[in-house]
Amino acid sequence: MSMLSDIMDFNKKFVDEKMYEEYVTTKFPDKKLVILTCMDTRLVELLHKAMNVKNGDIKIVKNAGAILTHPFGSIMRSLLIAVYELKADEVYVIGHYDCGMSAIESNQVLETMKKRGISEETINIVKNSGIDLDEWLNGFERVEDSVEHSVNMIRNHPLMAKEVPVHGLVIDPNTGRLDLVTNGYEHETVK
């Protein structure tokens, strides 16, 4: 049986037995927060438990490394919509230790793409269209610096309301301990 079949079978049971009822909430976050965090599997439940949030409390945006790479990309749009349309009053950027993006190098990713069937010609077409694949696919060295970069990009965005605090934290994916990188209430970096 395929993974999709397993999921669809479980989903039918989930709906038929009304298991969804404990998750019913509105589209507005009760704690008025939006979080940008990493897509790491270890954070799926741990981050929520470590922050004492449950379904309905927060808006959550995830990507590889919790990295904001473009000021007018889909991540920033999601954060702006959360603030302006979905009643979030604060933004949290939460990276994590032992992040896979800290070990990512663009040449390694490109080689893996080629092994999976992406042609050199296609890669060159993308590069020649003005996309800097080396920068776009590279990770980071220090998670704290990456979090601070994303925080500053959000905080200084021309469309972000200045009164919205933007906090930066790093979570330990083993224990859930949160370390403060920057306190959005104070607008200064913690060293």
TrEMBL record:
Keywords: Metal-binding, Zinc. InterPro entries: Carbonic_anhydrase, Carbonic_anhydrase_sf. It comes from the Bacteria. The keyword Cell division does not apply. Pfam families: Pro_CA. Its EC number is 4.2.1.1. CDD domains: beta_CA_cladeD. Its cofactor is Zn(2+). It catalyses: hydrogencarbonate + H(+) = CO2 + H2O. Belongs to the beta-class carbonic anhydrase family. This is carbonic anhydrase. It comes from Siminovitchia sediminis.
